[in-house]
């Protein structure tokens, strides 16, 4: 049932529990391992600078750091890792895994004459593991960064400027996504919509 561009009264529907499927479950076996430190990043998480500093503090103590993010927050995770690699003077070993979470939302009509609606969304997920110690070079997504040219090292003012620019972009995107229609029209045009017979 195509619903793009149509004003459908969703109060005539009841939703089923959301179904989530991850194409690649958490790829690193770190459960109950004290040598790892996880940082989960969301859109409304602390600033990139704050998250990177948190990572550097634990990375400097010898821990392996795992950044976990999904959706728009994936760019924050990448920025945090790049900042950490810039400040840390020794080789940094990294494994990056990218996957996606697929969600299926099903709505069933409460009145006769309407068809069920199924909406499928895909959200990108990124897991980045960085370590001072060598990792398995045969692992998918493995790379190593050696000490960089000191001229390319960012100072904290440059990091703050980068952070402010990223926050401005995030705020601008949030304003653009404020709904101006009724809740029943609030369906992403990128969603895949299917009709169930």
From TrEMBL:
Protein's organism: Orchesella cincta (Springtail)
InterPro entries for this protein: Alba-like_dom_sf, Alba-like_NAB, DNA/RNA-bd_Alba-like
Keyword Nucleus: yes
Biased composition (Basic and acidic residues): 159-176
Cellular component terms per the entry's GO annotation: nucleus; ribonuclease MRP complex
Spans through the membrane: none
Region of interest (Disordered), residue spans: 158-197
Matching Gene3D superfamilies: Alba-like domain (3.30.110.20)
Protein name (database record): Ribonuclease P protein subunit p25-like protein
Biased composition (Acidic residues): 187-197
Matches recorded under Pfam families: Alba
Stretch forming the signal peptide: none
Boundaries of every DNA/RNA-binding protein Alba-like domain copy: 44-99
Protein family (similarity comment): Belongs to the histone-like Alba family.
Compositionally biased spans, kind Polar residues: 177-186
